[in-house]
Specification:
The chain has 365 residues and is α+β, with helices and mostly antiparallel strands. The chain folds into two domains: 3-81 and 181-362, 3-Layer(aba) Sandwich (Aminopeptidase); 84-174. It contains twelve helices and 17 strands. It has helices at residues 3-16, 20-30, 40-52, 96-100, 113-120, 192-203, 221-232, 250-253, 271-284, 291-305, 316-324, 349-362; strands at residues 56-60, 63-67, 75-79, 84-89, 92-95, 127-131, 138-150, 155-161, 171-174, 179-180, 184-187, 209-213, 236-246, 258-260, 288-290, 328-337, 345-348. The chain has a six-stranded mixed beta sheet, with helices on both faces. A six-stranded antiparallel barrel has the order 4-5-8-7-6-9. The longest helix is centred in the C-terminal third of the chain and has 15 residues, at 291-305. The radius of gyration is 20 Å and the shape is globular. The protein starts with a helix and ends with a helix.
């Protein structure tokens, strides 16, 4: 057997460790656009997939709620929006998350120069396509030819060939598909990966509740979730927000299978629920790391070198704990990844397998 044949066999074997139905579901969801601020068409796809798996589905503004026969038994939340562009004028396109979050100097809430510099070349030459935000109907395809920071508005403007006919307000998604390498799932994974995992959980017989939130990348998703708890929920201590978690490279991401958190920049998380996750990981032989402890250790190194310190990060869980005055509590469960917020975000295959196993344990499946 030659080297290429061996590599192909290894990829097939790694992929076979993941349920085929999960991989096919993930492929389907990745092909469905869900640009920040224009998630309605994706909610329609999500509703169909969930109802086919026996869930009761209810829509609210910015939120889709899927419930089984024991909705209070366990609660998970995943955000469903992905980064993309939005047409803001004749042949003018801006980063959708900035527009949805009203991030501009007009409101004194501008995007930092460093963040815009990170993004300005990130999607150069990427293929994109436009769609109707409600129906998801196709409205043409194009290619990003460049991006620049407008000196008059201090905002990021993208140049796109092929979509000159669009009217303002039309969302533009990155053309994406799932790639599977020897080591990882690769694509625009944040956060369609854990969204697919929660849908797949209903296929396995999940009886609890799964929340799917919009506009997380614009910092708004926690508001929609908190509104639901204020309408219908008593005080709960078992909400688990699932997501991917960024690391500098794939080798660093592979140092642990899953990522937990004691806290983020906004709030401390539920200690009892964290201990439950730790015990399950230990019982199943799953390696884990607390991200806040990793950041603290890195900051000690940065401080010695006189380098800027890193933030603990701002998560949906931390935001809703801080704003709910004790109504909502919980923690996070995350898949380590590299290439965060790019078209090549990579999640180690072992981490994805471990994540699905932990979800099944938490759901008593």
């Amino acid at each position: 057997m030659n080297t290429s044949q061996k590599a192909l066999e290894q990829i097939v074997n790694c992929q076979s460790d993941l349920p085929e139905s999960f991989i096919e579901l993930l492929r389907t969801l990745m092909r469905s656009p869900s640009v920040t601020g224009a998630e309605h068409s994706f909610f329609r796809v999500l509703q169909r997939e969930l109802e086919e798996r026996g869930a009761k589905v209810t829509w609210y503004e910015g939120l889709l709620v899927a419930q089984g026969s024991k909705p209070d038994s366990r609660m998970f939340s995943a955000h469903i929006d992905r980064h993309g562009l939005v047409c803001t004028g004749p042949n003018e396109f801006q980063y959708a998350a900035f527009v949805a979050g009203a991030r501009s100097d007009l409101l004194g809430n501008s995007v930092s120069e460093s963040l815009m510099q990170k993004i300005v070349d990130r999607f150069d030459a990427e293929s994109v396509y436009a769609f109707e935000p409600w129906s998801g109907a196709y409205r043409g395809r194009g290619k990003i030819t460049g991006a620049y920071i407008c000196e008059f508005r201090n905002n990021l403007i993208f140049q796109v060939d092929g979509l000159e006919h669009l009217v303002a307000g039309t969302p533009v998604a990155f053309t994406d598909k799932l790639n599977i390498t020897e080591h990882a799932l690769v694509g625009q994974l944040d956060n369609v990966l854990t969204t697919a995992a929660l849908v797949h959980l209903f296929e396995n017989g999940f009886e609890g509740t799964a929340f799917f939130t919009a506009q997380e990348e614009a910092g708004k998703s926690w508001r929609y979730l908190l509104e639901w708890f204020r309408r219908f929920g008593g005080s709960t201590n078992n909400l688990i927000v699932v997501d991917t978690s960024p690391y500098p490279d794939l080798n660093t991401a592979k140092q642990q299978q899953l990522v937990l958190r004691n806290k983020d920049a906004n709030a401390d998380f539920n200690e009892e629920l964290n201990q439950e996750l730790v015990k399950i990981c230990q019982r199943l032989g799953v390696s884990y790391q607390f991200k806040d402890e990793y950041v603290a250790a890195q900051n000690r190194i940065h401080e010695q070198k006189g380098e800027p310190l890193s933030s603990y990060g701002s998560t949906e869980m931390g935001r809703i704990i801080a704003a709910s005055n004790g109504l909502v509590d919980g923690t996070t469960l995350q898949i380590p990844s590299s290439g965060y917020h790019t078209m090549s975000e990579s999640a180690p295959l072992g981490s994805v397998k471990a994540f699905l196993s932990i979800l099944n344990e938490l759901a008593n499946i």
